[in-house]
Design goal:
Shape: globular
CATH topology of the largest domain: Rossmann fold
CATH class of the largest domain: Alpha Beta
Helix content: 25-40%
CATH architecture of the largest domain: 3-Layer(aba) Sandwich
Number of helices: 15
Number of strands: 26
Distance between the termini: 70 Å
Strand content: 25-35%
Strand order of the largest sheet: 2-1-10-9-11-12-13-14-15
Length: 508
């Protein structure tokens, strides 16, 4: 029974009913609280016509109510469609239309702001509005706890839509078994115990918060502290206030902490950070000055959250760690042939056990067949293994810049730029060029004025000539998704605000 999300919650509620599970805006909820409320919400859904196999769309911010809605949908035998609350326009319309939910559960503020933008067919969907957590929970008290339905590990627990940075989003179907497996793996990688408390500030609609945060906590019988969003300025105060021992992250969260907190920060209980995207150069400083370990992982929504990781027992700085015991990971060339150790290629994945990778793309078999060619899931990411089995990530194949025949990783240039004095944030993209195919553009957020030419001067000697940017732009904020991934497509332009330094000249 514990091979499902509902089975895990049932087991914890029976074994340690009064143990803290969720801390949200100063309120604390035990395992038995959330278990009972989730089953009551399942009854409400059933009374609204939801049956096993239906889909329930969630459009809510981080709160205990979100988790009750998710778990309640699963207790009702339904799939929770965890949608990005920032979606608008075609992305929102597509995701709602394609997922075809029986009912929409949304924050009242979201309904007020965005419901009118939906077409008439979508506006006809029944809704459950969450005005406040306390009012929502109080409204569930009159309902009886739903009977426990038989749930199989192969049943679809969620549909998570990819961020859609290119084209329309794809609905990744993840089974209960996939969540149970990543919960076990997450407990193992950081040695999570019931005494731990994970800080979750990334959105709960995303697989990072779900698979790296919620499921390991639920598996270990630990607790989590929910925040609406990431705040660099108050991060350590927040962590100390809630007694957090770890947190999950994506992208540049750790890099931003390193910039915003240049000194020692030890007034907290943090011991681990679980996620991906940490520049190699700052790892030692993070562990020395901040006192917590960086558990760098490699993964994505489709592969069950993550497939390689640096554990509490084995770490190689700069790597994404070694392969999970229940996964196989290889590096293939463009012909799907495995390459030798040390050679870069596409990262491909397949499971050693059934049901621990995605079950498919919802109503999109063509994309699934393309991604799973030759019996391996092709991630579209580029990397290599070292001789000891540690994975090193080079970047997205689609993000690589092809300049005069050279394939260039923007993340490598960004890592150097973040060391430049005055640089608060940065991004590197390729822009079309008639001669070179693509040219390199560096976009920076700075604390004080910087001469454009100084950017390239700083990189000279740190990077080879062919990696030096031709274009430089200064902006106020790097555009990112809600999970801190750079929206590179929004920076791939040239206008009067972009400084053209000319092609880098070889030294005399």
């Amino acid at each position: 029974m514990t091979a499902t999300i509902t089975g895990l919650l049932t087991a914890q509620a029976q074994q340690r009913p009064n143990a803290p599970f969720i801390i949200d805006a100063g309120a604390q909820y035990s395992y038995s609280d959330i278990y009972s409320l989730s089953r009551r919400f399942a009854t409400l859904l059933s009374e609204r016509g939801v049956v096993k196999g239906d889909r329930v769309a969630l459009l809510c911010g981080n709160s205990a109510a979100y988790l009750v809605a998710w778990f309640g949908a699963n207790f009702a035998g339904a799939t929770a469609v965890t949608l990005n609350t920032e979606l608008m326009g075609d992305g929102l319309l597509f995701s709602l239309r394609q997922s075809d939910p029986r009912i929409v559960v949304a924050d009242a503020s979201w309904i007020e702001a965005k419901w009118s933008a939906l077409d008439s067919a979508l506006q006809a969907l029944p809704t459950i509005a969450i005005d406040s957590v306390s009012d929502f929970f109080q409204s569930l008290r009159p309902y009886a706890e739903a009977a426990l339905l038989p749930t199989h590990r192969s049943d679809i627990a969620t549909i998570v839509y990819t961020s859609g940075t290119t084209g329309l989003p794809k609905g990744v179907m993840s089974s209960h078994g996939e969540y149970a497996a990543v919960g076990v793996a997450g407990v193992d990688v950081v040695d999570l115990t019931p005494q731990d408390r994970t800080m979750i500030f990334l959105p709960l609609f995303h697989s990072n918060a779900q698979m790296l945060g919620v499921l390991p906590v639920l598996t270990a019988g630990a607790s989590m502290a929910l925040f609406k969003r990431f705040s660099a300025s108050t991060f350590f105060d927040d962590a100390a206030r809630v007694g957090a021992t770890g947190f999950t992250f994506v992208g540049t969260v750790v890099s931003i902490l390193a910039v915003r907190h240049p000194g020692v920060q030890r007034n907290h209980k943090l011991r681990f950070a679980l996620g991906g995207g940490t520049p190699k150069q700052i790892w030692p400083r993070i562990e020395q000055d901040f006192g917590f370990k960086v558990n760098e992982l490699y993964g994505m929504t489709e592969v069950g959250g993550w497939v390689t990781g640096n554990s509490a027992r084995a770490t190689r700085i700069g790597s994404c760690g070694t392969v999970r015991p229940d996964m196989e990971v290889r590096i293939f060339d463009e012909n799907d042939e495995e390459v030798p150790v040390g050679v870069q290629g596409e990262i491909v994945v397949r499971p050693r056990k059934p049901g621990i990778l995605l079950s498919g793309y919802f109503q999109n078999d063509r994309e699934m067949v393309q991604a799973c060619r030759n019996l391996w899931f092709h991630t579209g990411d580029r990397g290599s293994f070292d001789e000891d089995g540690y994975l090193f990530l080079s970047g997205r194949l689609k993000e690589l810049i092809r300049r005069s025949g050279e394939m260039i990783s923007p993340t490598e240039i960004e890592t150097q730029l973040r060391q430049m004095p005055g640089v608060l944030d940065c991004a590197v993209v390729g822009v079309d060029d008639d001669v070179a195919g693509e040219e390199i553009k560096a976009v920076l957020v700075v604390s004080s004025a910087v001469a454009p030419a100084a950017v390239r001067s700083f990189l000279e000697g740190r990077l080879p000539l062919f990696m030096l940017p031709r274009y430089v732009e200064f902006i106020d904020v790097i555009p990112r998704t809600e999970t801190e991934k750079i929206l590179r497509r929004k920076l791939q332009y040239l206008n009067d605000q972009v400084h053209d330094l000319g092609s880098p000249k070889p030294p005399r």
